[in-house]
Automatic annotation (TrEMBL):
Enzyme class, broadest EC rank: transferase
Full protein name: Chemotaxis protein methyltransferase
Enzyme nomenclature, EC number: 2.1.1.80
Domain CheR-type methyltransferase: 12-288
InterPro entries: Bact_Chemotaxis_MeTrfase, Chemotaxis_MeTrfase_CheR, CheR_C, CheR_MeTrfase, CheR_N, CheR_N_sf, SAM-dependent_MTases_sf
Length: 290
């Protein structure tokens, strides 16, 4: 393993503070404690570039002073955690998950009698593209497809540790370029023009509730979920944190429910958790449909 001292320090621009190994380790410890996000040495340059702005905005000239600020000020600590999260996402990302969702799970959900709830959770939702992709799948390819939702008890929960991305999810407004990854006919049916690009249709927004939630704190939700999408989130955690989170997610799944994870992720011990592989990075909780 390469040691911290052996790696080159990220080069600081003129007037920029350098991020030494000690301060990097202190920042990594805060991220581990607050969000269970595991920062390896390879992330030192990224941390340096994302936090240099925080130093400037606080009128601070060294990372040593910045770490001291973070340790004493919970507001800056939160801001730092948010600054160091990676929020990359797009509509219909890893589209095979949505093919599975539409062909395997949706027929079951549509077959439920009125009054039986449908609950889906996008955990680590970033700015909401994932949850609105699920919403568009549920709404269907045209407005008549959406008829089954009238009077049905269907709720999509979207949560993330970062409040700014949760607010973006709540707003449901995206830059025009984001439209490119939405296939037809979803694009022409469920998007509305907006001065900043486009806005999700009211029918999609009505299904979604967005909330700030740290996955390693207690969860206020009591219901079980038919599907949980927790994709490209666990890659940031170490094995112990992943194992904790996996067990908690599975507990929150209804029997027969599906867990969708990111393309480079694997459940550590699926059989022990009562989960069976149901497709590429798709797991089903044993116990059959409700
Ligand atoms: C790369 S994005 C993935 C977005 C979406 N799930 C997807 O696959 O496109 C990872 C998200 O996980 C969130 N995240 C990281 N650590 C978290 C934690 N401890 N609790 C809740 N969300 C967290 C980040 O804020 C970020 O928005």
């Amino acid at each position: 393993m390469t040691t911290a001292a052996a790696l080159p320090r990220p080069s600081a621009g003129p007037g920029e503070a350098e991020l030494g190994a000690t301060e990097f380790a202190q920042i990594a410890a805060v991220m581990q404690r607050e969000a269970r996000i595991h920062l390896t040495e390879a992330k030192r340059t990224l941390v340096h570039s994302r936090l240099s702005r925080r130093l400037r905005e606080n009128g601070i000239t060294s990372f040593r002073d910045y770490v001291a600020l973070v340790e004493r000020d919970p507001v800056e600590r939160r801001t730092m955690v948010i600054a160091l999260t990676t929020n990359h996402t797009h509509f219909f990302r890893e589209s095979h998950h949505f093919d599975h969702f539409r062909s395997v799970l949706m027929p079951q959900l549509k077959g439920r009698s009125k009054g039986q709830s449908v609950r889906i959770w996008s955990a680590g939702c970033s700015s909401g593209e994932e949850v609105y992709t699920i919403a568009m799948c549920l709404l269907g390819r045209d407005r008549t497809d959406a008829a089954w939702l009238r009077g049905a008890d269907v709720r999509l929960l979207a949560t993330d540790i970062s409040t700014p991305v949760v607010q973006a999810a709540e707003r449901g407004v995206y830059a025009a370029a984001a439209r490119d990854s939405i296939p037809e006919p979803y694009r022409s049916t469920w998007l509305r023009p907006h001065v900043d690009g486009f806005e999700m249709a009211a029918e999609a927004k009505a299904l979604v509730t967005a909330r700030t939630l740290n996955l390693f704190e207690s969860w206020p939700m009591r219901q079980l979920y038919d599907a949980i999408f927790c994709r490209n989130v666990m890659i940031y955690f170490d094995d112990e944190a992943k194992a904790d989170l996996e067990a908690r997610l599975v507990e929150r799944l209804a029997p027969g429910g599906f867990l969708y994870i990111g393309h480079s992720e694997r459940l550590i011990a699926p059989a022990k958790l009562g989960m069976s592989l149901a497709g590429q990075t798709i797991y089903q909780k044993n116990g059959g449909p409700r």
